[in-house]
Amino acid sequence: MWPFICQFIEKLFRETIEPAVRGANNHLSTFSFTKIDIGHQPLRINGVKVYTENVDKRQIILDLQISFVGNCEIDLEIKRYFCRAGVKSIQIHGTMRVILEPLIGDMPLIGALSLFFLRKPLLEINWTGLTNLLDVPGLNGLSDTIILDIISNYLVLPNRITVPLVSEVQIAQLRFPIPKGVLRIHFIEAQDLEGKDTYLKGIVKGKSDPYGIIRVGNQIFQSKVIKENLNPKWNEVYEALVYEHPGQELEIELFDEDPDKDDFLGSLMIDLIEVEKERLLDEWFTLDEVSKGKLHLKLEWLTLMPTADNLDKVLTSIRADKDQANDGLSSALLILYLDSARNLPVSYIPMDTLLS
């Protein structure tokens, strides 16, 4: 299958990733791939998990632990600046979810196939000529990390690739599903964090300037920085849409802000199935990957209701916390699906503009 998968990947690069990169920055508006050769080393699937609980009977959910380490030849250019770069190897490691739905009573038994990453995969790209590319005026604020984020986030939930296998399937409902729920994250405080700042060439241990990065899929939130405090109090609230469970997790990392490179203060991963089951979690969590530190979170699982019968009750309940969120707290969710357009006006470009 690998040669045919490569054809699909080339189409994905040209029709999906290339427009995403162009739209990310005005200086990248003439970005394009001039050659895409993924190589002969196929993708490896190191493990498969199939879900049997909390799953609709008309769907099959698979989580694939994928690993790809391959030599490739990908050339790209920005015509506006006559600048070229390339990729000679790519590594991708992560969990890809495959959903087969709806199951139907006729061949091929599966109505459509959906693919996406539950969280941002580990993506490493070995560039050639990237330094020259990033020296272009307007692009010097970019980095290979930002370019990786543009590419990887386009493949992370809620973004997905949906392939219809029969003509009757409602492709819009599969490509743009209604969220399963909303996760309200009260990012409250931490205790006993590690002191990363040092004085007198490391002899005297100081404090830290902690902040948090919160991720749900490709939704990312960053807290304010609390200066010189090992027991910071943030008291901030964030809301994230949850499109997939089981399998999706809340990821939190704490860092100490520094002028050069921020120091790591610990991490936390919470399965959203547990939050949905409890509806409300208000706990101190021990931080992972560090010797000490705890994080106080309050997590609320909010279910979408088809009518506005309880709207007044909801509005009353969120007034106490509304000042803690930058944009206020949500009481309802508006979902807008842009289907098509007709009879748009024709844009005429003056001839002198074309010639210039």
- Rg, please? 24 Å
N-to-C CA distance? 48 Å
Based on secondary structure, the structural category is alpha+beta
Major sheet details: 7 strands, antiparallel
Give the averaged pLDDT, no decimals.
83
Number of extended strands: 17
* Helix count from the secondary structure assignment: 7
What does this 3D model show about the protein?
By secondary structure, the protein is of the alpha+beta class. It has 2 domains: 172 residues; 141 residues, C2 domain (Immunoglobulin-like), CATH 2.60.40. Helices cover 18% and strands 38% of the residues. It is built from 7 helices and 17 strands. Strands 1, 2, 3, 4, 5, 6 and 7 form a 7-stranded antiparallel beta sheet that branches. Strands 13-8-17-16 form a 4-stranded antiparallel beta sheet, covered by helices on one side. Strands 12-11-14-15 form a 4-stranded antiparallel beta sheet. A hairpin with a 7-residue loop joins strand 16 and strand 17. The longest helix has 23 residues. It is globular and about 55 Å long. The model has no long low-confidence stretch (mean pLDDT 83).
SSE order and pairing:
Blueprint: H1 2-24, E1 31-37, E2 44-50, E3 60-78, E4 83-100, E5 112-117, E6 122-128, H2 130-134, H3 144-153, E7 161-164, H4 171-175, E8 181-191, E9 198-199, E10 204-205, E11 210-216, E12 219-222, E13 233-242, E14 249-256, E15 263-271, H5 272-278, E16 280-286, E17 294-302, H6 311-318, H7 351-355
Antiparallel strand pairs: 1-3, 2-3, 3-4, 4-5, 4-6, 5-7, 8-13, 8-17, 9-10, 11-12, 11-14, 14-15, 16-17
